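Lab channel / #folding
Pinned by the channel admin:
"Please post every new chain as: sequence first, then the structure tokens as a reply. Keep commentary short and put observations after the output so the thread stays searchable."

First post following the new format, from NK:
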Amino acid sequence: GFGDAGTTAQSCLQPDGYVAEASDCDDASAATFPGAAPQDGLDDCMKDADEDDWGDATPPPGVVPGTDCDDNDFGANPDSVWYADADGDGYGDPGLTQTVCLRPAGYVTDGTDCDDTSPTAAVTFPGAAPNDSAAACMKDADGDDWGDATPPAGVTAGTDCDDDPSTGFPTHPGAAPKDDPAACMTDVDGDDWGEQSPAAGVVAGT
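Reply from TO:
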């Protein structure tokens, strides 16, 4: 809807591909026109390739520069909120943020980590224990996909009665289905029967 002032046609009827407006600063780019980046300028002729309403900071000649540091990434603009990810699990601390265009080192776009700093923080994040919940922020230190039943404060409790990485892998709900398909038992030998004298807090099998 914005025309090139350098390419004109004079006619009584509107020719195909022509408009009565001549304020386009780059008619070769559909992403560039007056008002393309309203967060930077309501009327300025800018380029907004990622359609985040911020103008490209380094546009072609003749186009008004905006403040978008990466106009090919919708998630990167001056309003982008980044979350500190101290444990490197890809989930950030909702309480530690920076609002900047470019992602700072050690920060991520997700801010749903319930434990980003403890010794077990790297195994504590949303979806860590999918056998309990695909979305809840749980701790799964032994890697059996069941969440720790007694996690640190602020972490959602799962149903794993032994989450110790040195002993807990064969211990989880349903580990011994011949004894009980739901109880949290230990089955070290994999015969589907639970250990008779398990660790404290673990249901005894037969």
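NK: The two ends are 78 Å apart (CA to CA).
TO: also worth noting, The chain has a mean pLDDT of 92.
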